[in-house]
UniProtKB/TrEMBL annotation:
Species of origin: Nocardia aurea
Name of the featured protein: Uncharacterized protein
């Protein structure tokens, strides 16, 4: 869990239900847990804090990939 924020970064707590990213470790669908960071001082780029749906232990940042 990364709770600190930096200038130019907006962090929101929000569960993303329509997230379709995949775990880079095992390839299973990952769960977008809560944190979402959007840079405001550069190209539009969003990442989410994701965790693997399987207990492979992976967690980290993934690009925001949602069904639109
Ligand atoms: Zn995994």
């Amino acid at each position: 869990m990364n709770a600190h924020s930096s200038p130019g970064i907006i962090v929101r707590s929000n569960e993303i239900l329509n997230f379709f990213g995949k775990c880079p470790a095992c390839g299973y669908p990952a769960r977008a847990s809560d944190a979402r960071s959007v840079r405001t001082d550069g190209p539009l780029r969003a990442t989410v804090s994701a965790t693997c749906d399987l207990p492979c232990g992976w967690s980290g940042q993934l690009p925001l990939t949602i069904m639109t």
